[in-house]
Amino acid sequence: MTGGVRVQKVVLPGGGRTWTVLGSDHLPVGPIEQFLEYCRQRGYSPNTAKSYARALTLWWEYLAQAGLDWRTVGISELGGYPTWLRSGVPDGVAALRPGEQRFKESTVAQRFAALSAFYAFHDLVGDELASRLYQRVFAAPRGYVPLLEHVERRKGRARNVLAPRREGPRRPPILAPDQIEAIKAACATREAGAWVGSVRDRLFWGLLEDSGLRRGEALGLQHRDWHTGRGDTPYVEVVPREDSPDARVKGGRWRRVFISDATDRLYGEWLWMLCDLGADQAVEDFDASYVFVNYVREPLFSPMQPGAVDKLVARLRRKLRGVVPADWSAHWFRHTHATALLLAGRPLHVVSRRLGHGDVQTTLNYYGWVTEDAELRALADWKRFAAGWRVEA
């Protein structure tokens, strides 16, 4: 709870989830809930709604401490918001000693960007006072106009005059080949011709290593999306679906990702194990059921949740302390996959398409350093490591 407002998780009738912001009267805060409902109707992911809810909760706390109204707040008070996010000290109050910064600069920029989206919505629905603030601060006209600007857009280019400066992209963290092998081996190993441990968990990490999928994309895979090899290259289809709110495809774009024969064989082992457990009989439409499911606790064969992956990561961090980085996450596999492919000489546009980036510039922003770092290329045998990762048909 912060300043009488708090973020509240909401479970929807269909089993999905979203978030809202409750006031001191335990009712949704009207202006925030209107904006969040607009986001839901637009198909924004639950994680985006959660991020917006957290950001607007902080904004409401700041307004309460300063005694301000969200519709009539002044530019000077709005300009003090990023400083308050960093320090937690209200505007006009001098701290006796400097404390640690509460949020990273990237988080401060994200929280401020949420304000821009919030006020843009209320400008859209015609709230005069909120619209006035939005036009003066968040959509102010740019002073500089580049050459041929009139060809690109007729209404000019808007800019946020108070937005904190975003940090440039940092080098994404990656795992070494032996660290990936250690993670997979900690899940399951093959002994005397049989698998010992969780084949499901080993398959999950093997798929992320092999494909560069996001965590949610892997969790959203159904058996009909997995096309096993029949003398040709196996692949998986990344399919956007509205009925899997916890495992969404970012950007809503379909793509096909080729995988290795080793990962395909492991999927076959997992498939047989599921059938031995009776999944093919218990599930009405097995082809439309999820690849990664719960097979130990009730409800059996229900989709594996992102929280289960987080718990698995936590267990593996403890088990492999000193072997793998202490703060590694599932997303490191994606960074490692992209880095290895680029170090192996794959074209940037091919890697971008494989990762599902909407723009090749996104790939360049994250991984452009790879082609410049010849030292890393010499330190590791990345070409051999990435040799089994299928890219072309």
Can you walk me through this structure?
This protein is mostly helical and 393 residues long. The protein folds into two domains: 6-93 and 100-159, no CATH class; 180-328, Intergrase catalytic core (hpI Integrase, Chain A, Orthogonal Bundle). 46% of the residues lie in helices and 9% in strands. The protein has 18 helices and nine strands. The longest helix is centred in the N-terminal third of the chain and has 21 residues, at 46-66. It is globular.
Name the CATH superfamily classification of the largest domain: Intergrase catalytic core
How many individual domains? 2
What is the CATH topology descriptor of the largest domain? hpI Integrase, Chain A
In the CATH scheme, the class of the largest domain would be: Mainly Alpha
Low-pLDDT runs: 147-157
Give the termini separation. Answer: 53 Å
Taken from the alpha-carbon principal axes, the silhouette is globular
The CATH architecture classification of the largest domain is Orthogonal Bundle
- Helix segment count? 18
- In total, the number of strands is 9
> Could you spell the SSE succession in H and E letters?
EEHHHHHHEHEHEEHHEEEHHHHHHHH
Question: Mean pLDDT across all residues, rounded?
Answer: 83
CA-atom Rg in angstroms:
24 Å
Give the biggest beta sheet: 3 strands, antiparallel
Strand content: 5-15%
- Helix proportion of residues, in percent? 40-55%
Which class do the helix and strand fractions yield? mainly alpha
Q: Order of strands across the biggest sheet?
A: 7-8-9
